[in-house]
Amino acid sequence: MKKFKILYVDDEFINLELFEISLGIKYHVFTAHNGIAGLQVVEENPDIKVVISDMKMPIMNGLEFLRKLCTKHSEISCFLLTGYGLTPEINEAIREGLILDCMSKPFEMELIDKEIQRVLNK
Q1: Domains of the chain
Q2: Could you tell me which of 2, 33, 62, 96 has the fewest CB atoms within 10 Å of its CB?
Q3: How far apart are the first and last CA of the chain?
Q4: Rounded to whole angstroms, how far apart are CA atoms 45 and 21?
């Protein structure tokens, strides 16, 4: 059975490891420690279906990363994770369709998996 490819971007390495361990059985999980590395992963793997990004990261935040990503790859479904709650900027990104949803950190793998499945089953 072919596994769908997903990407998780976060500057906290423990979160990258937890994500890969938790969802790596079900999906082909790629990880990146910042937005620049995330863009490179997608360039090398254009068949990635879902990208999930942390909001607060150095170099570029999650929304900046996802905006750059979607200018070239609008077919990818994107989600944001934040430990700081919804901001007007995040709400605007949801309204404009840049991200499908924003989930809270610490993340709940069941909820994330459910959102990924919802997108993949469309």
Answers
A1: 5-120 (3.40.50.2300)
A2: 2
A3: 19
A4: 20
